[in-house]
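Second attempt. The first submission of Nitroreductase family protein had a stray character pasted in from the spreadsheet, which I only caught after the job came back as garbage. Lesson logged: always re-copy from the clean sequence file. Corrected sequence (329 aa) follows.
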Amino acid sequence: MNVIWRKIRPLIRGGYRIFNGFNGFMYDFKRFLFYGGWVENLSDKETRNYNSVMAYHGLEKSLSYKKRNPTSGWKNAERVFARLKIANSIGEYGYHDKAAKQVLQKFLDLPPNKDLAKSKEMRLAMNKMDFESKEEHGALVYPETSFRKGILNKPEDFFFSRYSLREFNGKVVSDEYVNRAIRLAMKTPSVCNRQAWHIFHTSDKDTIQKALHYQNGNKPFGVNAPNLLIISTDLKAFFAGAEHYQHWIEGGLISMSIMYALHSLGIASCPLNWSQTPKMDKALRKVVNIKPNQTVIMMMMVGYPDDVNKVCSSTRRPLDEVLSKLELK
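This time the job returned cleanly.
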């Protein structure tokens, strides 16, 4: 009997895992179906702004080439213009609506485009649109001296000194420092510069504990978390079916940037996995203000280290196991 059980137990366990995986896949599919931007409802300000940044970022790239094709960019220019007209007709403008208008103006003012009839037509219509961006968009001169400001004398000191801390000294990290870390992390690249991130922050102990209740990897240390972040991405930002996993990629990028930004400010962090079941994801959404279109990527405990700390050694695999030469087959 024991021999039979040892043979069928892996099959039962594997079948249960496959069922859970399928359940999770279907949950993700339904969320992409209901909340993804694939319908392209451009009357919705959030959807339109994600859509607009895709188009005007194409113009930014065209403006940034030192050797640009003088006839390039018009397809994106027409897309931007169409979305600006929608924003103007509704009378509700987002950040990227305003940025898009400025970028398109710069594109139309290029010498090869300035005197074209379609440029004059677009410019005339845009002059009647009563919204402007106060920031600078388009392209900028970026000398090597600016690039070299980011070079660390010994990058190993920075990267190898970061560990995940699960115990903190109890001092709450102020909003000022959390905000600064998020601003630094927002230099993270994103697909077509859509920046589909949203980060939730709290230092309220009751809120922290209620949120952590649904994350199964923080016991027993989560009870002492001074601050908690929940990193999410917005499904409205993704339009093509091929982008059905892109929100996870975007979320992973911003999450790591946040941890390094915090580390650069002397603040410790511990990422908390959110590979949860649909049931647990729904339960979390009942107690915190996360919108249905926002995908939870991870939770993150944040705080200051003690004078002396103990951490997992977390050694890394040999380089030859993770790095190979790319070759044709």
